[in-house]
Amino acid sequence: MHISDGVLSGYVCAGGYAITFATVMTTIKRIKVDNMPKVAVMTSAFFVASLIHVPLGPTSVHLILNGLVGVILGPAAFVSIFVGLILQAFLFQHGGITTLGVNTIMMGMPALLAYKLFDLRDKFNFKANEFIFGVLAGIGGVFLGTIILALVLITTGSEFVGVAKYALLAHLPVMIIEGIVTGFIVSFLMKVKPEILRKDRR
Amino acid sequence: MHLPEIDKFAHLKSPLHSWDPRVKIISISILIFSVVLVRNLQVALVGFCLTTVLIFLSRIPFSFVFFHLKWVLLFTLALSAILSFTISGNLLFRLLFLSISREGVNLGILISLRAITATLLIFLMMGTAKFSLSLKALQKMRIPDKLVQLLMFTYRYIFLFMDEERKMIVAANSRGGLKRRDFSTLKTIGGIAGMLLVRSFERTERIREAMFSRGYNGKLNIIDEFTLNSGDFIKASITIAVALMLNFPWVMK
After folding, report:
1. Residues 6 or more apart whose Cβ sits within 8 Å of residue B246
2. Is residue A5 in some structural domain?
3. Three-class secondary structure assignment of A60-126
4. How far is it, in rounded angstroms, from Cα B134 to Cα B242?
5. Which residues in chain A are contacts of B152 at CB distance < 8 A?
6. Contact A80, A39 (CB under 8 A)
7. Relative to the CA of A111, which of A165, B27, B41, B87 has its CA 20 to 30 Å away?
8. Is the pLDDT of residue B31 over 70?
9. Cα separations (Å) of A92 from A126, B17, B65, B86?
């Protein structure tokens, strides 16, 4: 889930930057000095974890994990994803300097949704509560991101409607895998290190 | 495993290496935005050629640059392929049941050129100085302190965790953990990613204590001094002039 340079119009890029900067500026203030090392180290852990390839049929896909970032970092997730994408664009040459704003919204907003979604788990009492809400957070993260991706492509021009349809279709299997893996990760963390998921640690 | 190494050639000497990082980042960013907004195929080609000349001037080996372009090429190729048959227009040729249109192919080439040029420019912006120096320049440019710090710390630990992840993948592979392609593989992968998070989480506590015991108070103190000279401004004016020319009304026709 990534838009490279040269696809979007100037207005969409500028709009993306405006929304991203506003959100980063408001959420970065809420990160306490005490928590700075944690946010940074977890950001690099997510960065590396998202490089893991998952075999899918004859090919493989890599994890996105934006839902999980939301689950673990909470409100700091948006900044974390912004930092991750800057490093990705500059270190790995994935491109996307002009589309950095749009890409951050595409992954960061769903992360905030996943954080809210996962916090609802206290209200339910299923047998595998964490797994179920992990799956929901993972699916929600990719689903909302894909919707934003399609909307951005369609607003850029009518010639991208076809591409938007294929993008939606291509993300369906990714969404399912992402959901299941996020579910497994969350239930693993619950068994091994439950304090990562505790709310007051954010 | 291939590590990200954008600043591998930061030690070379060239007009781009001697350029003040602050002025360089601003000027090249303007050029990147200008290149991305070009609407004409010929102008995009001019931008691409100019960038190639700049890379030649910066002495970064072309083999290094083109190896790192693979992600962008993959993305633009896929996008161009879809565009060439989803856009209807003058028929160029027929491929089985797909009709390839001239408009689609043109748009695909234009987007690819813009994306490749923008990515090449990143090499000039970030590849000609140590990454840590570029980050310090960002701080001098009044980018919020916390953001620069997050970039620095995150950058520092990525290499460490990549090493750790590679070890875990090798371990899982040697036990046959990733051999099958079913539900259990996903569980193994979830375990690997989860373990990576647990280990880094445990590390954050120690890192936090180490930082605070050395007097970390949330501020970043930089002792490097940057100095500007006339050469920096000459390079900046040329770059910005080119950026404006590429999007000047008379070339948009």
Report:
1. B34, B35, B38, B43, B46, B47
2. no
3. EEECCCHHHHHHHHHHHHHHHHHHHHHHHHHHCCCCCCCCHHHHHHHHHHHHHHHHHHHHHHHHCCC
4. 23
5. 40
6. yes
7. A165
8. yes
9. 41, 20, 11, 30
The residue written with tokens 């997510």 in the block is A46
Rounded Cα distance between A163 and A173, Å, is 17
Q: Is residue B54's pLDDT more than 60?
A: yes
CATH number at residue A48: 1.10.1760.20
Please measure the distance between the N-terminal and C-terminal CA atoms of chain A and give it in whole angstroms. Answer: 26
Q: Which residues contact B13 (CB under 8 A, 6 or more apart)?
A: B59
**pLDDT confidence bin for B1, thresholds 50/70/90:** very low
Total residue length of chain B: 253
CB distance A5–B187 less than 8 Å? no
Answer whether A144's CB lies under 8 Å from A152's CB. no
As for how many domains chain A has, the answer is 1
Write the residue in A2, A86, A196 that is nearest to B197 by C-beta: A196
Range of the domain at A76: 10-201
Residue length, chain A?
202
Cβ contact A182:A150 at 8 Å: no
pLDDT, tens digit, for every residue of A145-196? 999 999 998 988 888 888 888 888 988 988 999 999 999 999 999 999 888 8
Chain B: residue nearest A184 by CA? B190
